[in-house]
Write a structure and sequence with these properties.
The chain has 408 residues and is an alpha+beta fold. It contains 12 helices and 22 strands. The strands form 7 sheets. It has a 5-stranded mixed beta sheet. A 4-stranded antiparallel beta sheet has the order 2-8-5-6. Strands 14-12-19-15 form a 4-stranded mixed beta sheet. α1 runs parallel beside α12 and α6 runs antiparallel to α12. The longest helix has 47 residues. It is elongated. 31% of the residues are buried.
Length: 408
């Protein structure tokens, strides 16, 4: 589709007038509700400082098919659209409906200029978008002297952009479903492989397999560009995968005597997190030298295959056991004396060489699964990004209505 060529045919030489938004519609500010007035079972969503409802209310003050612009908070400048009646709080502007401009046409146009709108937000204190800024936004009105033709042109542009939006949503849903299906498949086979049903296996406690070494504290102020390689507990579940050869961070070399280290082939375990799922996440350290570890993490020292242990610590069997030994506060913390009792599978426990060979075989299979899943998780989102850029390109083309000589 050639957006500019289609637009020329659609306009068929019609004039376009660019007018300040405040001259075409009214900028309406909402009314704040107290938290006690909100509920989870009210009929109408309440929008304040974002596009996610703050709660629900029994009345509405804005009609369906209205455009809104968030005016306070981190989302100030964000453009939204509601296809149902809602309550507008004083944290968002609503644009009154008019017989000159199609609301959805206005929405698509403003979304295309969202970056410029956000650039006008005052950031001192609480981010705020002033009404005068919104009123001065220039919007195109095709055929200003022929309302019927103007609305017909706007409606056709809306139809095309809505179709693009729907297609993109369908594609993104399929991509996300594919990613989730592959991850589920991977977890299924990982858990089966590490279940060792019908095999010669002994489920030994971590205390029998190895020992835990707790790290020593360091802070962001200790980070340097060149120093001692270090793993912070938070990086284990935000940056690292199953294993690592290099660290994301380094700390001051002069701290060496005050630190504790993981040795090559140790498994580094996050000791705290905000979720039970992330606490206890493990990364096998496969680097050439030792690495400093934070005091909210542990180095697990052992004589098994380190990647085998890291994979085993991802299984449902491990999570089910681990959950019993995690503190129940807001910050989840491993209760290390309990974790020592958690059991992992040790294949062929009476034959160390055969055991390590079997561990290596399982790791090789899981490495391939992990590589395929990671590749898919990276390539498919890139496809989503390309689709979004394509949509944004055609949206810009369709809404690049020419400025008539002498218009505002």
């Amino acid at each position: 589709m050639n957006g500019s060529g289609f637009l020329e045919r659609l306009m068929d030489g019609a004039s376009v007038e660019w007018r300040p938004l405040g001259e075409v519609i009214k900028i309406l500010r909402g009314k704040r509700l107290t938290k006690t007035e909100l509920s989870s079972d009210g009929k109408y969503p309440v929008f304040h400082g974002g596009l996610d409802p703050l709660g629900y209310y029994g009345q509405s003050n804005r009609p369906a098919n209205s455009v809104m612009i968030i005016n306070v908070g981190a989302s100030a400048g964000t453009v939204g659209y509601s296809d149902r009646d809602f309550w507008s709080s004083d944290g968002c502007f609503c644009l009154s409906q008019t017989d000159q401009v199609n609301s959805k046409f206005l929405y698509h146009f403003l979304v295309g200029h969202e970056r410029q709108i956000k650039g006008k937000v005052r950031v001192a204190g609480i981010p705020t978008l002033d009404a005068i800024i919104v009123k001065k936004i220039l919007i195109p009105v095709p055929c200003p002297n022929d309302r019927k033709k103007s609305l017909a042109i706007q409606a056709e542009i809306v139809r095309i952009l809505d179709s693009f939006t729907e297609i993109n949503a369908e594609i993104n849903a399929k991509i996300n479903a594919e990613i989730n299906a592959r991850k589920k498949q991977y977890k299924h086979y990982r858990d089966r492989l590490l279940g060792f049903e019908g095999c010669d296996v002994d489920w030994k406690t971590l205390n029998e397999i190895g020992e835990f070494i707790r790290g020593k504290r360091f802070t962001k102020a200790d980070y340097v560009d060149e120093g001692i390689g270090a793993i912070h507990y938070g990086e284990i579940y935000t940056h690292y995968g199953v294993y690592a050869h290099e660290t994301l961070s380094e700390v001051k070399s002069e701290m060496a005597d005050a630190l504790r280290f993981a040795e090559p082939n140790d498994v580094v375990i996050a000791g705290v997190s905000e979720t039970i799922e992330d606490v206890g996440k493990a990364v096998a350290w496969l680097g050439d030298g030792k690495v400093a570890i934070h005091d909210d993490s542990y180095a697990f020292r052992h004589k098994m295959n380190p990647k085998f242990i890291a994979y085993a610590m991802q299984t449902n069997a491990f999570h089910d056991q681990k959950a019993k030994h995690v503190s129940s506060g807001k910050i989840k913390r491993l209760l290390i004396d309990g974790i020592k009792k958690v059991r992992l599978p040790v294949p062929y426990p009476d034959d160390p060489k055969r055991s390590l060979d079997e561990q290596a075989r399982v790791v090789a299979i899981l490495d391939k699964f992990d590589m395929l899943t990671t590749s898919l998780s990276e390539s498919l989102p890139r496809e989503m990004e390309l689709r979004q850029k394509q949509y944004e390109y055609y949206r810009a083309q369709l809404l690049s209505l020419p400025k008539t000589k002498g218009s505002a």
